[in-house]
Amino acid sequence: EFMQASWDVEEVQAKGIQQLASFVKDKSAFPYLLRCTEVITLAMKSHLDSLDLQVEACTLLLEILSQALEQGVMMALDESVASCLLHTVRKHSENEEFLPMLCTLLMMVSASEVAAENLRKVGIIPDLLAILRRFLHDAKICSSCCAVLWSLAVSENNADQAVLESAVPVTSAVLQKHLQDGVVAESACSALWALALQGCFTDSDYEPTAALLLDALRMNPERAVLVKNGCLALASLVRLSETAALAILLDSKGSGIELIKDEYHLHVHEPGVAEALCLLMNEMVQYDEVMLHMRCQKMEKLLSEIKLQFPFS
Known about the structure:
- This protein is mainly α and 313 residues long.
- The protein has 19 helices and no strands.
- The longest helix is centred in the N-terminal third of the chain and has 20 residues, at 51-70.
- It is elongated, with a radius of gyration of 22 Å.
- The chain starts with 9 loop residues before the first helix and ends with a helix.
- Its EC number is 2.7.11.1.
């Protein structure tokens, strides 16, 4: 009430946020703090020029969201909160010190389907792409933005086809730049998977994207989630075009089939990886020429191994 009574007074908002932050360590205060997210984001929107207030508010929201995730509480932030966050993103889109924190906040917020939908509705995707283009060198910003992009693109009722199509070259550039950084590569593979699910690729994208995803698997073989998401992205590409399947077979850096076998044996106890590999192979055998090649590579042997390893899956 104290904050709501004086929206225009920056000092009141700053003191209010500081006071709320003092309750963060008190577990019994958590249910009440959950109700304060709208007040905090409105304070951010009302005082966009105050970087100190933005940082303090962002820090507090991250604390609240972290506690919510720990306790399994999903915060479905409404459209007004999404709009406030968008205003902050636009005002501070060139601040490389503040952006990693802000992008991490967006990543945590977008874990909720409702919040992700609201962020999409207010039109945040072009802003995310602009940030990625500007800060392609920054691993933390790239990782968070790609995670948000995945959450926004994976929605089934997506009406932003043209916007999402423009995300393909940017996301590919992120993966190319950070191939050896497992965290960023994992996030970028997930985003490419979501974009492939939405059919955002053109004919000229299939071969280079498939090659790029294979590179990501080669560079980060030990990361099970990256392998799983990379294979799911490849499966979605192959479903769209035989060109992608042929690119996997004929990759200039070595057979994609041999890579698939190696990845399975490396993650032999990971059902998620096995399932993604099976899905990829299932898409590949839809093409006669590809299936003949897979037979020559004795893929039946691998499939039999998987069947024995996961008889009840």
